[in-house]
Design a protein that fits this description.
Number of strands: 2
Distance between the termini: 41 Å
Structural class: mainly alpha
Helix content: over 70%
Shape: globular
Strand order of the largest sheet: 1-2
Order of helices and strands: HHHHHHHHHHHHHEHHEH
Radius of gyration: 23 Å
Pfam families: PAP2 (PF01569)
Subcellular location: Endoplasmic reticulum membrane
Keywords: Endoplasmic reticulum, Hydrolase, Membrane, Transmembrane, Transmembrane helix
Membrane topology: Multi-pass membrane protein
Main location: endoplasmic reticulum
Largest sheet: 2 strands, parallel
Number of helices: 16
Number of domains: 2
Length: 408
């Protein structure tokens, strides 16, 4: 009966997402929402330019470095590098919850960005400080909401909740101190995004509001999600289908941006983490594993883990990408699905060009799914998804197996 109940709610969730994809596409929901929100947001971005310029007028080199550094610390690449270390330090529950929360924030935040498609502050007159390549890519996205603000609210809020409920560090003083530190971090990040010329006030306020809503929702469901991941029915198959559907349940922006690429990567990370943890929970991720600074896991041993783990996951990332670049085009060609590649496979850059002879070669799968309508699919999405899924799987499955073998 338990298995049947799980199948029912899983089918309902997946069916609901599929229905939304069809419904939203048929009614052109994205365009209608954009026509409603975009003028209002764009107006506020434009009128708040003077506020951004006023804040930037107090700038000097130290503030440039401070806010650029803070932006890097709460960026997606930082979390991508930090979360594996959290897994390997023995804090498995915190690590998997923050990973899934990050993926959820990334999906919702980027969906809102691409639905609204509102601009960032105009530069010039605003000075846009992009100290890293990551910031240069962020500048290519739309503005509302501020992802840095949203992610900081959610992840710092969840981290504080975890510390207060799952550790011995408790008490009124600790609670007030934690809330104050989280508040100061969010304030500095929000102010920094405006100072760097990356966002207007309305973007930061939207990030704050959306972040608080997501955090409140996550604190309601996180225990249920964690219980499902470690001991549920059909976990890997359900999450694989969910991840696949979420690639389609994403709005089309007014103009192309990197936001969908970021979502694809973290969508793959979530699948890899869930699949790996579900398979190896009782071996490597249960509540009694050694934690950093304990007698079983000293700093020296943890350093050894990093020396083994980091090169391993980078190797897996490279191999996953190479394997995906070989298998996805082969499968697509076998099924008769036309493909293209915008960056990963140069030989497919021109594959989107339509020829009459190409239409005659359409396979059954393509005709079945797309009603005989010609369309070339960008294989970069699948490659990126599998690449990051493989990387995440190695973090929680392959690398811990190596640790066990090497007695680390």
């Amino acid at each position: 009966m338990e298995g049947e109940g799980a199948a029912v709610w899983q089918g309902a969730v997946l069916g609901g997402i599929l229905f939304w994809i069809v419904f939203a596409s048929y009614l052109d929901v994205t365009r209608k929402l954009r026509s409603f929100f975009q003028p209002w947001v764009s107006h506020h971005v434009e009128t708040q330019t003077s506020v951004v310029l006023k804040i930037q007028s107090y700038g000097f080199g130290f503030l440039d470095a401070l806010f650029s550094g803070l932006s890097c610390v709460v960026s997606v690449p930082f979390y991508t590098g930090f979360l594996p270390l959290l897994f390997w330090s023995g804090h498995g529950k915190l690590a998997r919850q923050m990973t899934l929360l990050m993926a959820f924030c990334d999906y919702l935040g980027n969906c809102i960005k691409d639905v609204v498609s509102a601009p960032r502050p105009a530069s010039p007159p605003v000075k846009r400080v992009t100290a890293t390549k990551d910031e240069e890519e962020n500048a290519l996205e739309y503005g509302l909401p501020s992802s840095h603000t949203l992610n900081t609210v959610c992840l710092s809020g969840y981290l504080l909740h975890y510390v207060l409920t799952h550790t011995q560090i408790q008490g009124a003083y600790i609670t007030y101190l934690g809330i104050s530190l989280a508040f100061m971090l969010v304030l500095l990040i929000g102010l920094g995004r405006i100072y760097l010329g990356m966002h207007s006030v309305v973007d930061v306020l939207a990030g704050l509001l959306v972040g608080l809503v997501i955090l409140a929702f996550w604190l309601t469901v996180h225990e249920h999600i964690d219980s499902f991941v470690i001991s549920g029915q059909n976990v890997t198959s359900f999450w694989a289908v969910l991840s696949f559907l979420l690639l389609f349940a994403y709005p089309t922006p007014e103009l192309p941006t990197p936001s969908f690429e970021f979502h694809t990567a973290f969508n793959g990370v979530a699948l890899g983490i869930v699949a790996g943890v579900q398979q190896t929970y009782h071996q490597f991720h249960h509540g009694d594993v050694p934690r950093l600074f304990s007698s079983e896991l000293s700093v020296l041993v943890f350093a050894g883990r990093m020396l083994v783990g980091i090169p391993t996951i980078l190797t897996v990332k490279f191999c996953s990408k190479a394997l995906a670049k070989w298998t996805i085009p082969m499968v697509a060609n076998t099924l008769g699905i036309p493909i293209k590649s915008t960056s990963y496979i140069p030989t497919l850059n021109g594959s989107a060009a339509v020829k009459k002879s190409d239409k005659l070669k359409q396979g059954y799968m393509q005709k079945l799914l797309f009603r005989y309508k010609y369309k070339a699919f960008d294989v970069d999405t699948g490659i990126r998804f599998l690449q990051y899924a493989g990387l995440a799987w190695s973090v929680v499955d392959l690398v811990p197996s190596l640790f066990s073998y090497m007695s680390l």
